[in-house]
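stage 2 :: seqdesign
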């Protein structure tokens, strides 16, 4: 790379081969010692010849350019006249002397911006958390194109974008994941002791902190379940196939798996509440979470089970239907005003009908 070639570039007079040489220099060599030496050679030489301050050096340089212009405007015989071509060549070189350090500074700035963006990317990891309020569902689109549906009272922690070789999120509660396919970068849902790893898949994970189990249901694609013993220490439990539902016990590490109808595990994202031979205690738990109430079940009816589907039904309509289908009744306890001026959670007691 030479100064003359850079001047040709500034004048848009480069051949295709010369243009490639300039672009290569800008990308690979502009910020090297050799590149800086080229960029600042004339500029620094000019400084060394003048015992002036920075502002005076600029003024002096532009005064010299003005002198050339004045000489060109003088009629013949009253002073030296230069041709238009020679003047333009000189002005181009003068401009180049000014622009070379500007270009070098631009290349430096772009390089620094890339470094800053990388630092920002690192700092931005794990900086977002979304919460689905009690009584409502939430949908979030991640930066990689993955869509996540969050069930009532669930939390998802995720980064602005995914650095490194994996895409990792943390879930508390229940989420349905439609993972954007990327075979080079697995998608991992972390729930504490259990990791659910996928590439491009649709699956459901239920991992409420108060529950003894983490449940995973695979709709399509493939997921791998990993048990976390300690930070960085993982044990593969196995892979799942579409239509499979797995329950992992957080205390014992026991795994229960079954294959069959999965609508009751994933129907919630469409507003469906599906029970299939479901014990009343589990029904009460799901209704409590969904409607932010405290439902207590009398011990006399703990063996009752329900097979029914509700679609966006209000709580008391569901309770009324339960009293029709089985010999139960319910009582609503009045809410109490607390010292902080808020009210206690609504309490409902389900018991055997007399």
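stage 2 :: out
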């Amino acid at each position: 790379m030479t100064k003359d070639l850079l001047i040709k570039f500034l004048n848009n007079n480069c051949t295709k081969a010369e243009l490639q040489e300039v672009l290569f220099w800008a990308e690979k060599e502009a910020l090297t010692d050799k590149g800086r030496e080229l960029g600042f050679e004339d500029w620094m030489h000019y400084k060394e010849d003048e015992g002036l301050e920075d502002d005076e050096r600029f003024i002096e340089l532009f005064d010299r350019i003005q002198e050339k212009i004045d000489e060109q405007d003088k009629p013949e015989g009253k002073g030296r006249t230069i041709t238009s071509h020679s003047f333009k060549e000189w002005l181009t070189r003068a401009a180049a002397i000014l622009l070379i350090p500007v270009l070098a500074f631009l290349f430096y700035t772009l390089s620094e911006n890339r470094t800053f963006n990388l630092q920002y990317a690192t700092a931005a990891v794990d900086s977002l958390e979304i919460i689905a309020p009690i009584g409502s569902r939430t949908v979030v689109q991640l930066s990689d194109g993955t869509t996540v549906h969050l069930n009532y009272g669930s939390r998802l922690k995720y980064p602005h974008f995914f650095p490194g070789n994996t895409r990792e999120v943390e879930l508390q509660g229940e989420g349905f994941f439609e993972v954007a396919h990327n075979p080079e970068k697995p998608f991992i849902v972390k729930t504490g002791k259990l990791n659910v790893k996928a590439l491009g898949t649709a699956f459901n994970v239920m991992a409420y902190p108060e529950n003894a189990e983490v449940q995973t249901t695979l709709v399509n694609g493939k997921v791998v379940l990993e048990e976390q013993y300690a930070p960085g220490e993982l044990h593969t439990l196995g892979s799942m196939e579409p239509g499979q539902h797995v329950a992992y016990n957080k205390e014992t590490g026991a795994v229960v798996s079954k294959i069959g109808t999965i609508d009751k595990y994933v129907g919630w994202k469409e507003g469906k509440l599906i029970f299939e031979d479901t014990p009343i205690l589990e029904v009460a738990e799901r209704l409590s979470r969904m409607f932010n109430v405290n439902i207590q079940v009398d011990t006399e009816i703990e063996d009752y089970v329900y097979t029914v589907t509700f679609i966006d039904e209000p709580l008391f309509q569901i309770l009324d239907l339960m009293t029709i289908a089985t010999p139960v009744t319910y009582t609503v306890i009045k809410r109490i005003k607390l010292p902080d001026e808020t009210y206690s959670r609504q309490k409902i007691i389900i018991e055997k009908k007399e």
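stage 3 :: structure notes
- The mean pLDDT is 78.
- The helical segments are 3-10, 16-29, 33-49, 54-73, 84-124, 263-266, 280-291, 315-325.
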